[in-house]
Amino acid sequence: QVQLVESGGGLVQTGGSMRLSCTASARAFNTYGVGWFRQAPGKEREFVAAISWGGGSTAYADSVKGRFTISRDGVKNTVYLQMNSLKPEDTAVYYCAADISRPAIATHVVSDYDFWGQGTQVTVSS
């Protein structure tokens, strides 16, 4: 399967910034749509942001619009999630996922994603 590795999580204060990375070793990763999802304790996994192959299209959850930015670097086979103005409610385990079947639409649908990373913890202190 496609192996995705998230990194960049940790502890940050309210109002701070953090950048998460999702990296795969295969060049084909650049032809997949990629999404970021998060799951907080006691809550269901929720959509955060997505980017199409090539980076031409993006989508964001209403809760993060204007604060988070998703981007990708084709040379590094990496997708980033830049998180600014962080709030305690952003605290969650963040997962990246690859969509190999619908790569052009930056989908928010969980079931559209085929492979998932292990997740990285983001904790925002109040």
Structure in words:
- The structure is a single chain.
- Helices cover 0% and strands 45% of the residues.
- With 126 residues, the chain is mainly beta.
- Strands 2, 4, 5, 6, 9, 10 and 11 form a seven-stranded mixed beta sheet that branches. A four-stranded antiparallel beta sheet has the order 1-3-8-7, with no helix packed on it.
- Strand 5 (46-51) and strand 6 (58-60) form a beta hairpin.
Strand composition percent:
over 45%
For the largest beta-sheet, the strand count, sense and barrel status come to: 7 strands, mixed
Q: Categorize the overall geometry.
A: globular
Structural class: mainly beta
Strand runs, count: 11
Keywords:
4-stranded antiparallel sheet, mainly beta, 126 residues, 45% strand, 7-stranded mixed sheet
How are the SSEs ordered, and which strands pair?
Elements: E1 5-7, E2 10-13, E3 18-23, E4 33-39, E5 46-51, E6 58-60, E7 68-73, E8 78-83, E9 92-99, E10 115-116, E11 120-125
